[in-house]
């Protein structure tokens, strides 16, 4: 009995966190991010205002509640690449998987969410910050000296940033999910192909090492 209690408590915490985030996102979409207060979110979620801020110290993270995953995806793709596999191959494959799954960390969030982001200077700035953090996280796991790591990370992160922005544009234009996926998948390959001459062999591990 006692051994299952921590798991149940953690599950309840995750449920509460998700309910708060879902409520906040609904209000942000309906009223605008800047116009919605923490007090209004707490009232709608039927929790104390302090509960909201305990789970989400930054208001932006109520809307961008998967920000840790967003930051980590490129570094994870590079770090988990196979032997003899270039980093470019790993990050390309990661994007294709995200596009097929319509993953939120790639930018697939629907037109209402994209409009909320576009209409909010605060959220737009936070997205830029998260892109920068993702680039830094990637650089930390790449091989080579600092200059090479930073240069390579900047190129890979720029590709993902461009594709994220492209997904937002297409969602705002009313593109169907099928058209959206087909378009960004094709455009992603064009972008990654541009990186091949400089980075096509970068990061290949020596399988015998």
From TrEMBL:
It holds the Pfam family TetR_N. Residues 1-20 are annotated as: Disordered. GO terms for molecular function: DNA-binding transcription factor activity; transcription cis-regulatory region binding. Residues 37-56 bind DNA. It comes from the Bacteria. Residues 14-74 form the HTH tetR-type domain. InterPro entries: Homeodomain-like_sf, HTH-type_TetR-like_transc_reg, HTH_TetR. Keywords: DNA-binding, Transcription, Transcription regulation. PANTHER family: HTH-TYPE TRANSCRIPTIONAL REGULATOR BETI, HTH-TYPE TRANSCRIPTIONAL REGULATOR RUTR. This is Putative transcriptional regulator, TetR family. It comes from Nocardia nova SH22a.
């Amino acid at each position: 009995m006692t051994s299952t209690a921590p798991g149940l408590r953690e599950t309840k915490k995750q449920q509460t966190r998700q309910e708060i985030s879902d409520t906040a996102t609904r209000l942000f979409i309906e009223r605008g991010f800047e116009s919605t207060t923490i007090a209004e979110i707490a009232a709608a979620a039927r929790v104390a205002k302090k509960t909201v801020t305990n789970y989400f110290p930054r208001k932006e993270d109520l809307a961008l509640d998967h920000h840790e995953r967003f930051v980590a995806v490129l570094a994870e793709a590079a770090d988990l690449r196979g032997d003899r596999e270039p980093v470019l191959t790993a990050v390309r494959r990661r994007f294709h998987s995200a596009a097929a799954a319509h993953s939120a960390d790639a930018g697939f969030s629907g037109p209402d969410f994209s409009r909320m982001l576009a209409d909010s200077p605060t959220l737009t700035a936070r997205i830029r910050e998260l892109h920068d953090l993702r680039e830094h996280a990637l650089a930390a796991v790449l091989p080579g000296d600092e200059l090479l790591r930073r240069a390579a990370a900047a190129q890979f992160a720029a590709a993902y940033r461009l594709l994220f922005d492209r997904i937002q544009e297409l969602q705002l234009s009313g593109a169907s999910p099928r058209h959206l996926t087909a378009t960004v998948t094709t455009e992603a390959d064009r972008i990654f192909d541009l990186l091949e001459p400089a980075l096509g062999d970068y990061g290949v591990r020596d399988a015998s090492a």
